[in-house]
Design a protein that fits this description.
139 residues; mainly beta; 8-stranded mixed β-sheet; 3-stranded antiparallel β-sheet; 3 helices; 11 strands; 50% strand
Length: 139
């Protein structure tokens, strides 16, 4: 089971993230759990902390777009390894597709997001009153 925390009123889960195909350094990312997002994204702030350059990725021919309340953002889909800080049952990181978001005025203030492409494989429990966030694998 992966455990997270409540930040204000927002459910979050921390993980060390690495993107082997792009190099860079694994960093701890505090993902916002967003059931309204189809795609998981790493923010430009977090990708720069990994040593990646989100501006260079936008010119990649594989770049795609995702829309949401804040507008449309471009990203490049990559395979990342997510090693959750509080994962009681797993000994190795999850391998998952994730987008590296382009750097723009709008995206600089957005958090990294775990969307339904990842969350849908789990039973999600969020209790703001109990300050509890849990992702349990669906068996």
């Amino acid at each position: 089971m992966i455990r997270g925390f409540i930040d204000g009123r927002a459910p979050r889960i921390a993980a060390f993230v690495s993107v082997p195909a792009l190099g860079g350094t694994p960093v701890q990312v505090r993902f916002l759990l967003d059931t309204g997002a189809a795609t998981s994204l790493i923010s430009p702030v977090d990708s720069r902390a990994m040593g990646l350059n989100p501006r260079q990725l936008v010119d990649d021919p594989r770049a795609a777009s995702a829309g949401g309340i804040g507008g449309t953002i471009r990203y490049v889909a990559v395979v990342a390894f997510l090693d959750f800080v509080e994962d009681t049952a797993r000994l190795k990181p999850y391998r998952a597709p994730i987008g590296i978001a382009e750097s723009s005025a709008a995206s600089e203030v957005l958090p990294s997001i775990l969307g339904m492409d990842f969350i849908s494989a789990f039973r999600l429990t969020v209790s703001v009153l109990e300050h509890r966030v849990e992702l349990a694998p669906i068996s």
